[in-house]
Amino acid sequence: MVGYTAGDSLDLAEVDAQALVLLLFGDFDRFYGDLADQARTATLIDSMYALLSGCMEDEFQQDVYENPNMTLDQMNDLYASLSQEYGLQQVYGYQGTEWVLISHTFQTPMYYISYAVSMVPALELFDLAKSDMESAKNAYFNIITRKSYETLGDVLARNGLASVFSESTIAQIADILKEYTT
């Protein structure tokens, strides 16, 4: 089985999708023409948003589900507080009620973190592609052709990618993104 149809890790399925977009970054001129720079900027903003919102939504959902007696006002206050803490209130003007627009909260709680988890190896592949596109493509191909039910950690390690749970990996990802924001 290949990629999303492998029937296994949702985190790996998200890596499949997010890494593909980032590996095509160098071809944006062909895809977008005069709008390529805007598309690159939007893609990197989306990548940062996936990291931040994935963590924020998960933290929100964990707190709400651990406290079933939380009132609507408390939920809104929590969401507003978290959006401030994660910097999303300043950028997107969150008011605290946006959580109701996230269908995952109701349909697939605790899934949203996968967007952040999967963005880490996707950005690692993006960074690798800048210096060695062939290795990045090979690693990506190995990821999407993984055996069914392989774990995220095993697939990443086998392809030379770091653990998404390592502080040094997160620092590396921050450095990759800083390169484009300074």
Entry keywords:
182 residues, single chain, Peptidase M3A/M3B catalytic domain-containing protein, 10 helices, mainly alpha
Provide a short characterization of the protein structure.
It contains 10 helices and no strands.
Terminal-residue CA separation: 41 Å
Radius of gyration: 17 Å
The count of β-strands is 0
Mean pLDDT: 94
Low-pLDDT windows of residues:
none
SSE topology string? HHHHHHHHHH
* Helix/strand/pairing category: mainly alpha
Number of helices: 10
Shape: globular
Count of discrete domains = 1
Instruction: Note the beta-strand portion.
Output: under 5%
Instruction: Give the % helix.
Output: 55-70%
Biggest β-sheet strands, sense, barrel: none
Describe the protein's architecture and organization.
This is Peptidase M3A/M3B catalytic domain-containing protein. It comes from bioreactor metagenome. There is one protein chain. The model has no long low-confidence stretch (mean pLDDT 94). Helix 1 (10-23) runs antiparallel to helix 8 and helix 7 (113-131) runs antiparallel to helix 8. The N and C termini lie far apart (41 Å). This protein has one domain (3-181). 69% of the residues lie in helices and 0% in strands. The protein is an all-alpha fold. The protein is built from ten helices and no strands. The chain is globular. The longest helix has 31 residues, at 36-66.
